[in-house]
Amino acid sequence: MSWRRVSLKLIGYSATATVVVSSIAYKYGQRNCSINIPQGDSFPNGSTTRLTDLKPPKYCSDVSKFIPELKNCGIQIVNSKPEIEHHTGNDFTTHKPLANEVPEYVAYPKTTEEVSQLLKICNREKIPVVPFSGGSSLEGHFHSTRPGSIVVDTSKMNKILAINENDLDVVVQAGVNWQQLNSALQPYELFFGTDCGPQGLISGMIGTNASGINASRYGAMSANVISITAVLADGTIVKTRQRPRKSSAGYNLTNLFIGSEGTLAIVTEAVCKVYPKPRSETVVVVQFPSILEATKTVARVFRVGIQPSAIELLDGDMMHCLNYSGYITRPWLELPTVFFKIGGINDVVVKENVSVLEEITKENQAKSFTFAENKQEQEELFSARKNAFYAMINWGKNEIDEDVRIWVTDIAVPLSRLSSVLHEINKMIKASKFRSIILAHAGDGNFHADIFYKENEKVQVEALVDQMIKLGLRNEGTATGEHGIGNAKRRFLELELGNDTINMMRKIKVSLDPNRILNPDKIFKIDPNDKGEY
């Protein structure tokens, strides 16, 4: 046998062995890699993931086995009855958690690194993780929909890491309360522009893209967050960008996380914009014969170039609740009322804006026009708006039922549609058996039609709310201007955005969180067996 034949024979054996080994390695790799990759066409093929592309997620059956390991990372883990109850639900949401939707443990990390260690373990063992911030959400955002869930409460990550007064930004941990932040900014004559409910913490505000009274001028969280530090499902720590106000460096990952409700990552730090306090400011209260004149005034104010810090509309029924409550220092006409906050660099600018505003309101048949001459009067005038929520509860408990409930809607429409939509909603309410008030962040077309009902009327009130939301959607609006989707408004997201858009979102979700451990079942369905009502 020639050396050539021997060589070829050896090469043949070598090639055969290589093919066999490669085939085994490929099959072994396939088997192991498939653990963390959803089956079917969901990943990596295709640009979207339909719910039917997914298999039901599988989660850890005994979380307690891994608690010692988590504690060894220095993370505080608790499961006392008061802690579990506090992290199960709240009194604000109309969609209460089911009897089995109870977390098994609550974790209190204090650093980004602790969150990373926790998620590495939870991802490895497929333990569902529910992020928790201030606990005041209205749409079931922190319901533990999966057995064996660990709630990750970021409230102890509450340090203000830097105040960059000359750059007009701050670096904060996720658990900083926005009012706490404003207190720290007072010596610098700065403030944070997003002012949601008083319990709001930065991470939850990012998760829901929260806004508030100041949004007409300063915007929602999406306009006020420069950069985010977050921990992905597998424990990877990412920072979305550096600190400059503008950047074209890659994908806008900051805004990917804003509004994601803890389904893509756990936010641990943020760089947020802050603003100089207006050197001069006043409050103007204007009352109108109808909502039509009130909303026409609001639209005209923007068209002439005035930029109020806040524009809040309360309908006549809300003004009745305020008069009834005794929480205010003076009675008001029970008519649609707009509260304006107008600030500027000096008194001359503010007075000029007030003068222009007064002319606009006269053109729209204003019944009264009142403005504050000093700080005390500002607080007195705006106290009516600040006390609206408590006045509403007080009236409902005394005039309807001690156990009355309030269904808070959160529709937003283009400003040009606000008047007609509110008119139609008033007609819906009058045709029903329910009483309601309307409170609107009129500057950005966002309003809350808050309906009083009793527990045995939930089916009827829900049908009314469905009509209202669908009316908003038909007018190019949204089901939620600032509260988020959670697990209570998922069906409206389909009507608003369509299945293809939701399938794209689901694709992003399973790409970043293939085991589907992060806040399962929020925003859209991730389990083909999910038969949830909403």
Q: Please tell me how large the radius of gyration is.
A: 27 Å
Shape, per Cα inertia axes: globular
- At CATH level 3, the topology of the largest domain is Uridine Diphospho-n-acetylenolpyruvylglucosamine Reductase, domain 3
Q: What is the average of the pLDDT values?
A: 91
CATH arch. level architecture of the largest domain: 2-Layer Sandwich
First-last Cα distance = 78 Å
Q: How much strand content do the residues show?
A: 15-25%
Instruction: List low-pLDDT spans.
Output: 1-42
Oligomeric organization of the protein chains: single chain
Q: Portion of residues in helices? A: 25-40%
CATH C-level name of the largest domain: Alpha Beta
Counting DSSP H or I runs of 4 or more residues, the number of helices is 17
The number of distinct structural domains comes to: 3
Fold and architecture overview:
- The protein has 534 residues and is of the alpha+beta class.
- The chain folds into three domains: 3-36; 49-277 and 491-534, 2-Layer Sandwich (Uridine Diphospho-n-acetylenolpyruvylglucosamine Reductase, domain 3), CATH 3.30.465; 279-484, 3-Layer(aba) Sandwich (Vanillyl-alcohol Oxidase, Chain A, domain 3).
- It is 37% helix and 18% strand.
- It has helices spanning 3-33, 67-72, 81-86, 112-125, 178-185, 202-208, 215-218, 253-257, 291-303, 316-325, 347-363, 375-386, 388-399, 418-431, 458-474, 490-497, 499-512; strands spanning 76-78, 105-108, 129-132, 150-153, 160-164, 169-173, 190-191, 225-232, 237-239, 265-273, 275-276, 280-287, 310-314, 337-344, 368-371, 405-408, 411-412, 435-441, 446-453.
- The strands form four sheets. Strands 12, 13, 14, 15, 16, 17, 18 and 19 form an eight-stranded antiparallel β-sheet that branches.
- A hairpin with a 4-residue loop joins β18 and β19.
- α9 packs antiparallel against α14, α14 (418-431) packs antiparallel against α15 and α16 packs across α17 (499-512).
- The N and C termini lie far apart (78 Å).
- Its cofactor is FAD.
- It is found in: Mitochondrion.
- One of its GO terms (molecular function) is D-lactate dehydrogenase (NAD+) activity.
- It catalyses: (R)-lactate + 2 Fe(III)-[cytochrome c] = 2 Fe(II)-[cytochrome c] + pyruvate + 2 H(+).
